[in-house]
Amino acid sequence: MAELNLLQKKILADGVIKSGDVLKVDSFLNHQIDVPFLSELGRQFKRLFANRPVNKILTIEASGIGVACLTAVHMGVPVLFAKKSAGSNMDADVYATEIKSFTHHNVNRVIVSKKYLNAADHVLIIDDFLANGCAIEGLMDLAGQAGATVEGVGICIEKGFQGGGDALRKKGVNLKSLAIIEKMDAGTGTIVFRE
Ligand code: 5GP
Asked: Which is the closest atom of ligand 1 to the Cα of 22?
């Protein structure tokens, strides 16, 4: 078996498996934030996408923002986060799409301002988790509406058994995940990573 990487070790030490195939890592990733640790993940994303001409990081509120910002520090680019919006009369000024939430089971309309995303942009999409792929598909849709180029997608924790990541790879998306969970069992608390 290959040696576990930093994030895989942290998941085994601090992750809690919940019912409904949800992994809680809110002690370090998306509620309380371990800033030096996320900064290290950001450094890894910078290395993984070093050959791409990225000028902006795109993520979605709220849980992608922390790791996106700590990646941006290393890459020296701004972060744009898609906002959840109830709708407004300023639709002409935004790109909008709908994203089904994996954790909350509702559909959110999310927007980015046309001011901050356009055809000259080369974006790296970053998020904390990838499950069925709805969040990433939505962010790619927003980039597509703007005519921006998606240079890659960086994910902290991909739940490989939910298939979203493999579907994106099949479409040719340059997707890199720092940890891919192949199996997890809430009953026994076991987690198996993809090699
Ligand atoms: P997807 O859209 O790929 O189905 O799900 C990804 C989104 O749902 C991420 O933005 C993340 O916030 C949330 N998510 C999916 N699975 C998990 C999980 O196991 N734990 C946590 N904390 N969030 C998750």
From this structure: 19
